[in-house]
Amino acid sequence: MDADLQNEFNGDEWYGNHIERVIISADAIQEKVTELAKRVSTDLADSDDEIILVGVFKGAVMFMADFARALSVPVKMEFMALSSYGDSTTSSGTVRILKDIDSDIKDKNVVIVEDIIDSGLTLSWLLKYLEGQEPASVTVVSMLRKPGMQHTDIPVDHLGFDIPNEFVVGYGLDFAERYRELPFVGVLKSEIHQNS
Ligand code: IMP
Ligand code: MG
Questions:
Q1: Which residue in 53, 76, 103, 131 has its CB near the most CB atoms, within 10 A?
Q2: Is the model's pTM score more than 0.70?
Q3: What value, to the nearest 5°, has the Cα angle with vertex 143 and ends 137 and 146?
Q4: Which protein residue has the closest C-alpha to ligand 1 atom 21?
Q5: Beta carbons within 10 angstroms of residue 131's beta carbon
């Protein structure tokens, strides 16, 4: 790992020896947030309808916070909590609503703000659920996507990065509820997975 990226770990004290390698640096993420926000702001600039960002707890929180502040259009922020995969590193495929959105999205422009698309099950379920409420439009923005696992027709309007098919943490993504606060995206050392 190069010296700059190693410095992001803040020595050994802050998960310093847990990360195998950094896949996307904090700087690259922030640049991408700016670019995605510009694109979405441009797309929706002329719309008279209200814009509602919908994020899924907890993974999308970091991206949602940065993305909302980088937009140049006014929005409302909504969060849903869905049944998670627990501490497992593979998806189970079941989706249950633990917390719903608070706003009425009928005739509004909805922007789904996703951390990562893996199997695509979460997103395809969410799309159906929100489209059932008759919004004026639905735009999908995802910071990360893994290859090969998705059902064929997962529409992503604005994508940050395609990443290798490995379990990653940071920038909202966790392993056993840890590592979400890392400002970069990285791969955990295999002994960290295996020991828990
Ligand atoms: P999907 O339904 O399989 O597309 O998975 C979506 C959710 O699984 C994401 O929102 C994450 O919370 C979680 N997830 C998928 N891959 C990873 C990963 O590599 N690290 C951490 N969480 C992940
Ligand atoms: Mg998530």
A1: 53
A2: yes
A3: 110
A4: 173
A5: 12
CA distances (Å), 93 to each of 10, 73, 85, 110, in order?
A: 36, 34, 8, 24
Rounded distance, CA 168 to CA 192, Å? 12
Rounded CA separation 27/89 (Å): 26
CB 15 within 8 A of CB 182: yes
Over residues 139-167, the pLDDT tens digits come to: 999 999 998 666 556 889 999 999 999 99
Say how far apart CA 92 and CA 123 lie, in whole Å: 14
Nearest CA among 167, 193, 78, 196 for reference residue 185: 167
- In our burial notation (b when 16+ CB lie closer than 10 A, e otherwise), range 49-68 reads ebbbbbbbebbbbbbbebbb
Beta strand 185-188 pairing with 19-24: antiparallel
Task: For 28-50, give the DSSP string.
Answer: HHHHHHHHHHHHHHHHHTT--S-
Tell me the residue type at 138.
V
Atom from ligand 1 closest to the CA of residue 120: 4
Q: How far is the CA of 58 from the centre of ligand 2 (A)?
A: 6
Pocket test for ligand 1, best of 118, 144, 179 (most atoms within 8 A of CB): 118
Q: Kindly list the catalytic residues.
A: 118
Length of the chain: 196
